[in-house]
Design goal:
CATH topology of the largest domain: PH-domain like
Organism: Streptomyces umbrinus
Radius of gyration: 20 Å
Helix content: 40-55%
Distance between the termini: 41 Å
Number of helices: 5
Number of domains: 2
Transmembrane segments: 34-51, 63-82
Keywords: Membrane, Transmembrane, Transmembrane helix
Protein name: Integral membrane protein
Strand content: 15-25%
Order of helices and strands: EHHEEEEEEHHH
CATH class of the largest domain: Mainly Beta
Structural class: alpha+beta
Length: 187
């Protein structure tokens, strides 16, 4: 069992181990999505440079402009890497990471819109936001979140979000059943 912090500490989470620690569970699809983001940005940069060079208008300034736009596209397409261990959930983005203690959650919300996001907040002010499909694709991450949320509810800290967690659980059960039927040929 890993050592736990019981409250906010200087530097937020000073004892968070490196991601190569065996106790961490990671999003299995993240590497493929990151490669896709790199590929899209590289393709956009390459096509822009080819068209600009073909028209004879390619300059150093235009190259920098196209490279900056390709980087912005990469930053937009790169998903956060979701990792978890017992009692803790971490989302690591391009410019840093955010963490929450799952056994100290106060709210679980879903933001609707073009891209659905699941938002977790803990009693120490931690907040993470990620795509709920990550939980569908990674049952181990869902198990860790569910166990922590149950501990939060039992401890009385989870005041908002039990309905959302129930809906998410039902969605995961439906997706799992569809996958089982598809694999077994019963769909």
């Amino acid at each position: 069992m890993s050592r736990r912090i019981e409250g906010p500490a200087s530097g937020r989470f000073p004892d968070v181990p490196a991601y190569d620690d065996g106790t961490w569970v990671h999003d299995r699809a993240w590497a493929g999505e990151a490669r896709s983001a790199v590929g899209c940005a590289a393709l956009m940069l390459g096509l822009s440079l080819v068209f600009d060079a073909g028209s004879g208008r390619l300059t150093a300034l235009r190259f920098l402009l196209w490279a900056a736009l390709a980087f912005v596209l990469f930053a937009v397409l790169l998903p956060a890497r979701v990792s978890a261990r017992e009692g803790e959930f971490v989302c690591q983005g391009l410019f840093g990471h955010r963490s929450v203690y799952t056994d100290r959650l106060v709210a679980v919300c879903r933001s609707d819109g073009v891209a659905q996001r699941l938002v977790l907040r803990d009693e120490f002010g931690g907040r993470v936001e990620f795509d709920p499909r990550v939980l569908v694709d990674n049952p181990a991450l869902w198990r860790l979140l569910d166990e922590g949320a149950r501990a939060s509810a039992a401890g009385g800290s989870l005041v908002c979000g039990t309905t959302e967690l129930r809906r998410l659980s039902e969605r995961l059960d439906r997706e799992t059943a569809r996958t089982v039927f598809r694999i077994s040929g019963l769909e």
